[in-house]
From TrEMBL:
This is Type IV pilus modification protein PilV. NCBIfam families: IV_pilin_GFxxxE, type_IV_pilV. The chain crosses the membrane at residues 20-39. Keywords: Membrane, Transmembrane, Transmembrane helix.
Length: 157
């Protein structure tokens, strides 16, 4: 008899964990680690998406600021999405030559493609002193936004 008034069976009392307890603990741990791995994957995807949105907003702001400094050629900054088809950023987007509206626009379109991928495009619409800049790109890493991410920035110059 032990000190709690129970009768001992066999020579010793049970010590340690049973195999079932260990397996259940391992399953719980594995499920938790899989959840953490999924959380990390989603975190990376959303971080990439936020980075691309920040780049798009900065690019839209930069072209509006450029247009503010060159108001005399404002109408020359109008762009349609189809004009992005001929842009090739593989050679790099260097600033060289005369800085006029055409060169600034060419530089900006190259930077859009370089920063947001080869499928990126955009448009600039000018109505009087109001400007609307739209940039579109594909976010393949987020299925909910695949092929449909865009930023629109409007300003009065």
């Amino acid at each position: 008899m032990n000190r709690f008034g129970r009768i001992r069976r066999g020579g010793r009392g049970q010590g340690g964990f049973s195999m079932i307890e260990v397996l259940i603990a391992l399953v719980v741990l594995a499920v938790g680690l899989l959840g953490l791995a999924l959380l990390q994957t989603m975190n990376l995807r959303y971080t990439k998406s936020a980075e691309q949105r920040t780049k798009a907003i900065n690019l839209a702001s930069s072209i509006i600021d450029t247009m503010r400094t060159n108001r005399s050629e404002l109408v020359a900054y109008a762009v349609e999405e189809s004009q992005f088809e001929d842009v090739d950023p593989s050679a790099g987007c260097e600033r060289s030559g005369a800085l006029n509206a055409a060169r600034n626009l060419e530089q900006w379109m190259c930077e859009v493609k370089e920063a947001l991928g080869p499928e990126a495009d955009g448009s600039i619409t000018i109505a009087g002193s109001s400007v609307r800049v739209q940039i579109n790109w594909s976010e393949d890493n987020l299925p909910s936004l695949a092929g449909g991410a865009n930023v629109v920035l409007e300003s009065v110059l």
